[in-house]
Structure formats: C-alpha cells, structure tokens
# Entry
Amino acid sequence: MNEIDLDKIDLTQPPPEHEPERQYYFMAKCREYVRAESKRLGRPLICGAFTFGCQMNARDSEKLLGILEAVGFRPTENEQADFVIYNTCTVRDNANQRVYGRLGELNRYKKQNPQMKVALCGCMMQEPTVIEKLKKSYPFIDLIFGTHNIYKFAELLCASFETEGMLIDIWEDTDKIVEDLPVERKYPFKSGINIMFGCNNFCSYCIVPYVRGRERSREPKEIIREIERLVADGVVEVMLLGQNVNSYGKNLEEPVTFAQLLREVEKIEGLRRIRFMTSHPKDLSEELIEVMKQSKKICRHLHLPLQSGSTRILQQMNRRYTKEQYLELAERIRREIPDIAITTDIIVGFPGETPEDLEETLDVVRRVKYDNAFTFIYSKRTGTPAAAMENQVPPEQVKEGFDRLLKLVQETAREQVAKYQGQVMEALIEEVNENDASLVTGRLSNNTIVHLPGDASLIGKIVPVLLDECHGFYYIGHCILEETGAE
Ligand code: SAH
Ligand code: SF4
Ligand code: F3S
# Structure
C-alpha cells in the first residue's frame, strides 16, 4: 500500500461511504484516540496480534497489525499490552481450546491493567455457539468480529474506543474484497498474498466453507500490483494463498486460470521465488504441471492434501477423487518434475474408517513417499455433514492408526529429505538460528530447512549451500559462494 496521509483527512466531515477511504477516515479518528490515551498515560500504547490458524489467518493478522501500527500502537510479542487481539481458528477443536485457555490468562492481565482492551476475530467467531459462550463466560472481552468484516477493523476499533462493554459485529457472508489497506509484514523478505478467499468444496468434515464463506478470487491485476509493491519493498519470495488455488479465477468476470496467474507472477522482475498453498488434487491441471516445470521461480514443492487413501472414505469426505486418480496424479508430477517435494495432509479417524481403510492410506504414503506429511486426528465440527454421521471411530482405534501412520510418514520423509546430501542448493536465509547464534537458518526451494554458519547480514539473501549432513528432517550445510546474482 502507498503511504496514506492520515493528516489530510478532515474529521469534521462525516465518514466516506466508499472503501477503502472509509477505513482511512476511521484510522485517522483512531489515531486521535490513541494519541490522547498515550498522552494521559505518558507512554506509547502497546498492541499484540496473535495468530491461531493457517497461513491465511497469519496474513490477516499482518493486516490487523498494519492498522494498529498506522493508528499509533507499538507492536509487542507478548500479551501484556494495551490492546490484544486473538485471530482465531476453528478447523479442529484443539484450536478452539487453545483460545479459551489463553483467554483465562488475558483476564488476569486485564485486572492488572484495567484500560487494556481485548479483541477476538477470525474463523471461530463465525460460530454462533462460540459467541454465546463468550458472552456468558468471558464478559471482559471488548470487541468481537468475524472473517467477513475484517476489512472494517479500523471502524470497529474506533467504535470500541467509543463504547463501554462488549461490541459484537459478525456477518454471515460477503462478496466484497477491499484492496489497499495497510499491512505490517512479519518478514521483510517474504510475504503471503491472498489470491482468493473462502471455499466452495464442502469436504464433509471441514468447517472452513461455513466460516470463510463462498469462494472469491482477486483480480489478477490487483495481485500483480501488490506483489510488485512488495518486491520494491524488499520481498524476494511470495506465497500465493487460497484454500484451493487450483480453482483460482474461475468466477472472475474475465476468467483466468491459476496457471495463467503464475505465468504473470513469474514475469515480475526482482521476484526470486514463488510458492503457493493449497492445491486440491481434483482441480490440479496439466497446464499447472507444465508451468511449474518450465518456471525458474516456482519452488520445487507441492502441498497436495490426500486426507485418506481409501476411495470409499474419500467419497464420504466429498473429496471427488479416488485413490487411483490421486496416485496417478502424484506419479505424473514426480515424473515431470523429478526434484519436486510433495507434502500432504492426512486425517485419521473419519467416521466409518476401518483398519482396512487405514491400510489404503498407508499404501499411498509408501507409494508417493511424501517429503513431509501433516497428520491429524479427525475432529468433529458441529454443522458439518460428517458430524452427523453415525459410526464415529472409537478413540483407541484412532490412536493406534494415528501412531502407525505417523511412524510411516516420518520414515518416508527422512528418506526423501536425505536424498540431497552432498549437493549444492540455493537457500533463502530466514533467521539467525534460535539455539545457536553462530548459525543461520535457510529454506531450500523444496521447503527443506538448512542450518549453516553465518550471521544476520545474510537474512533475506539467497545463497548456494553445500548440504553436508542430513539430520532427519533438516540439513547442516555451509555457504559456498557469495550471494547468487539477483536478476
Ligand atoms: N483447503 C485446504 C485445507 C485447509 S484445512 C485443503 O483442502 O487442502 C487444513 C487441513 O486440516 C486439511 O487439509 C485437513 O487435513 C485438516 N482438517 C480439516 N478439517 C478437519 C477436521 N474436522 N478434523 C481433522 N482435520 C481436519
Ligand atoms: Fe476444507 Fe475441503 Fe475447502 Fe480445504 S477444500 S478448506 S478441506 S472444504
Ligand atoms: Fe483455521 Fe480458518 Fe485457517 S478455521 S485453518 S484459520 S481458514
């Protein structure tokens, strides 16, 4: 976003109707409140935004922080702040439980610091039962809003400065996409970019379509413009985000495919790496494989969620592919792009899953040889078709299956990751190693982590690294040359 000059906004006028101008107006107004409060306390106001969910949730938190900083808050990493916002997730029950657990603690901080404000937003807030519970048991919360009106954060924050007690604003859906609001990135050198919002797939176990609404794609030119600005600001790697990027652009006035979008992103000068998340196997096109194969910038990593290897369970899950179709797709990708890493998500314990179904899943894992896999225990989400299914699997059976799967995916991942020992690969250096300050941590194109001697001056650079030793899921290596030339 270009610098917005909040000083030029005339607050004696009524707020504009149009977005994003309306939010700029409320940002200017919030800034007045923050200034006044800061003067009263004789110190700057501190804020914290905490992410509980996926990359899209994390990107939303960067937007929240963008507004908070624009109105004068200073960010902090802990919860002892004047304004704390939890950006929640509800994909599995443990995500919800973490929020409730930490709310208890927030209540204690608020008692010590009574002018502190607590806000909640994100996917969990789209569930009416959650709101009821918060109203009843957590009355100290000041502001609650959902996923569809996050672009109104400045306006809601302003209203919360002007109200006593709990302010709640939840929308059922929206078809609106508001561009050009401020964003505060976590990393200077890499960034997520939303290319679409919502999901239309309704996998039978999943709550995302209910809490994120219908699928909406951003215009390609808006996406390109955002990436160009990010690159001008030092970003070398982007991650294009959507629940199902392979169906990107289908509902635009002038339809565009995801592969076409990637071709345009590839052309952006100065951009070095392109990632994306997530690919639904049912919509992965021949064209996409072709574009990936030819690309110099698209990273050698594909996240291709399997969920189950049993065709019968896949059908119950409404995934719309069979075990054979998935295997065929994975084989084709490995054949066309041999150095690609394939990762996945798998759910154990979906209603009606038998030990034989689990065998089918293990079989797919053995054949695809995932480079990494996220394994989840099925979590019943109220309102989804699977929650109403009979024959929920007993916990002991789920646990046993889960342990077997985990062991297998760890074995294949170890084997896959170790394949590159002794080779030189480019790594984007992301941070100084948390445990050993003489090392830095980088990421290879295939998403594997490598630790190497170096210092903070390397952060954000892409350097060639000799992968000396594989330690299970990561490498220890060393940089063999100067930074590789930027284009
Ligand atoms: N849109 C992405 C997934 C988003 S949710 C996709 O379709 O691939 C991330 C992962 O959470 C899913 O891939 C799935 O494995 C898991 N998940 C979703 N709902 C779940 C549930 N009810 N119980 C357990 N895991 C679930
Ligand atoms: Fe959920 Fe399926 Fe949509 Fe992914 S594609 S968000 S698993 S409904
Ligand atoms: Fe969670 Fe919402 Fe993402 S439910 S996984 S934060 S889309």
User: Anything to note?
Assistant: Residues 199, 201-203, 206, 208-209, 243-244, 280 surround iron/sulfur cluster (ligand 2) (CB under 6 Å). The chain is about 35% helix and 20% strand. The first strand starts at residue 46 and ends at 51. The CA atoms of residues 274 and 344 lie 19 Å apart.
